[in-house]
UniProtKB/TrEMBL annotation:
Keywords associated with the record: DNA-binding, Transcription, Transcription regulation
Organism, as annotated: Streptomyces nodosus
Family matches, as Pfam families: TetR_C_14, TetR_N
Keyword S-adenosyl-L-methionine: no
Listed PROSITE patterns: HTH_TETR_2
Name of protein: TetR family transcriptional regulator
Length: 212
């Protein structure tokens, strides 16, 4: 009797589980980068620390520096969600607070400490700096689309494109300001997370005031 046709072996991972695995790899990579530097870290080490094979690391990421992208993009995705929910006349800070309460992953909620360490590394690791800047470069069109939807404008309109550039610059400056300013300031994790949240909230308020 012939064997039944169809898929054998392990079932495919769900999209949610794939996202979790990517985050686990990202956290493992950052821990190693902080402890021993990027150059001394291998894909095999990242896989071992994340509890996966090196082959799986390379299946998800083209190189070791790109492993950190999920930590960079988590906060950006949440800001896009905030912009889509932002209604005329509503303080953007209130939308941000609401989204922060609803999303455990905003700015990486338990990952905010990790993101701070990672951003500090971009000062001395050019390849990580390139990933950091590329993440924001790719986020700008998403900001523009969300702002265009809010204003009822075409997705390729100039005004939301300029506003998106303002948001992009403000967010990057805020996260870098917090990460670099606190490098020599010991603080418990809760204080550090609250500080980053307050800094980003202030940046959003400045830009929203300019848009008004």
């Amino acid at each position: 009797m012939s064997a039944p046709h169809g898929r054998t072996g392990r079932p495919p991972l769900t999209e949610a589980r794939r996202a979790e695995v990517r985050l686990e790899i990202a956290r493992a990579a950052v821990g190693l980068f902080v402890a021993q530097g990027v150059a001394a870290t291998t894909g095999e080490q990242i896989g071992t620390a994340a509890g996966v094979s090196a082959r799986k690391v390379w299946r998800y990421f083209p190189n070791k520096e790109s492993c950190v992208r999920p930590l960079f993009s988590a906060g950006i995705d949440a800001i896009v969600a905030c912009l889509r929910q932002w209604r005329p006349g509503e303080p953007l800070g209130e939308v941000f607070d609401r989204e922060l309460a609803n999303r455990e992953s905003l700015l990486g909620d338990p990952d905010r400490d990790t993101v701070g360490a990672l951003v500090r590394l971009t000062r001395t690791e050019p390849d990580l700096r390139a990933v950091w800047l590329q993440t924001y470069d790719e986020a700008e069109p998403a900001f523009a689309r969300a702002l265009a939807e809010r204003a009822g404008l075409p997705a390729d309109a100039l005004r939301p494109a300029i506003q998106a550039a303002m948001f992009n610059a403000a967010l990057r400056a805020a996260v870098e300001h917090h990460a670099w300013r606190t490098v020599d300031e010991p603080a418990d994790p809760a204080t550090a997370r609250d500080g980053l949240t307050a800094t980003v909230r202030s940046a959003l308020a400045v830009v929203a005031e300019g848009l008004a």
